[in-house]
Amino acid sequence: MPETRKPYPFLTLDPLTLNGTGARGATDFSPVSGLLSPPHSAVTKPKSPLSPLSPGFTRILHRARSLTSLGSKRSKRPDAGIAYRLPPELWIKVFMHIPLYLLPAVTLTCRSFNILAQPLLFSTISTHPAASPSLALRGPQTSKYRKRISERLEFFFSPRISPSIVECWISPPAPEEDAPTDDIIDTIFDSLSHLPNLKKLSCRYVRLTPRRLSVLQNLQLTTISLESCFGEIADFAAAPSVPLQEVTFKYPDAALRRGKACLLFLSPTHLEQLHATTTSILPILSQSPPFKKLRSLDIPIECITSDLLIPALLRCPVVDHLSLHTTDCIPRSLMESLPEGVLPLLSSYSGPHYFAAPFLRGRNAKTVDISVPCKPHGLAVSLVRLDRSLMSLSFLLEGVELPAPLLGTIHHSFPTLKKLAVGQPALASAEINAVLQAVPRHYTLSEITLHIQGRDKFNLWIPPDEAAADAVSCFSKCRAALLQTYPSLQVVRLMHGSQGARVMWRRSALSGLFVQVAA
């Protein structure tokens, strides 16, 4: 029989932290892997660090082959080595299609499977426990915390695991100024150079010292996220920018008053996506050279009232997607449209409906996502001001119904619309049929997403299996009305519950029938 191997004593996996959409969260000693998502996933995934061209791949295969041949020789059963006769390269391809929550069982099957499959669990790592603030505060708990982190680092940065790591989260349980973890985090930063395929780094409550910034400048990162990271880094204001493609700043407004040093992370020749939660990003952008590759810009809604908004946008000539994330308070603005020459390529907008038309007027609008619940009449007024070339529309409504006049306005205003998504309200099958029968046909819509109401709308929680069964029943009742209203319909998604779960159907090109597929 194949020789079994005991798991690492400090490695635990919690399947309850995984969801069915491919997005996984990092927990205490639990890895997150983007490599194990099914091939049809719409999420763009990085190239596997265990591909034949990656560092460490040859070493892993050599070790697996040595264990395979050894295990076959030890076996006394004639057929015991049949499973090991496949080359390790093929086993890796098989393991990459196994769901993440089942992969730990594969690693415990035998030594060779452990060598091949275990690195696949560690595409994303968290170097600190997810939530254990008491461990790092005082007394014997501090030494226990340090020992635990040391064990974690020794495993993560081992030659067998390190080539598989693509993303790393450094998130101590408390800010460094409140907990004695400086030497631990210095060790982590010094060890990052041992991760040959590291591309994404997320830091939270970490002090940005010159020593650590020098480490970042020598890494081959493409993405960095800084949340409430503090420290005096003015000496690096004149240093060469780190060639990052995606940058996220999660700071309160007052934290980036001395924001010139943040230019270290904003390379005008490399940056493609910028996300910021503070209006202090505007003076930083307005004083920097033009960003020649910046395509996606995500800024807070409060920026709409700043005098620096237009100067900052002038530094982003190729942005085609603008997102305004909001809080409960949405400021008013007198801006009717962007000045000529500002964001000339803008075609996609996400945010409150008030500002969709001012930003997209006079431009070839393609995608609009109304991310804040709004009233049907106000949404209709904003939509009629958009260009008729819109291809994709999603929105959330206040109230408990989808008015037929609003849907009729959408059909009339956007004759070439391809995708429509209504995230709220949740609708029963009878309500969907009534609305569809009251609006004219739309001949180009190919994808529709609706939020459906379960049989018991007063139940606060319905088991996922029952909710999915309700979605299937709803689709069977609405299919005829959907096809009558949208003759070109190819994809139907019905969301159910409060967690965004969905059931999806795709129309077969051969039979013309709708077939249920993975969402």
UniProtKB/TrEMBL annotation:
Gene3D superfamilies: Ribonuclease Inhibitor. It comes from the Eukaryota. InterPro entries: F-box-like_dom_sf (IPR036047), LRR_dom_sf (IPR032675). This is F-box domain-containing protein.
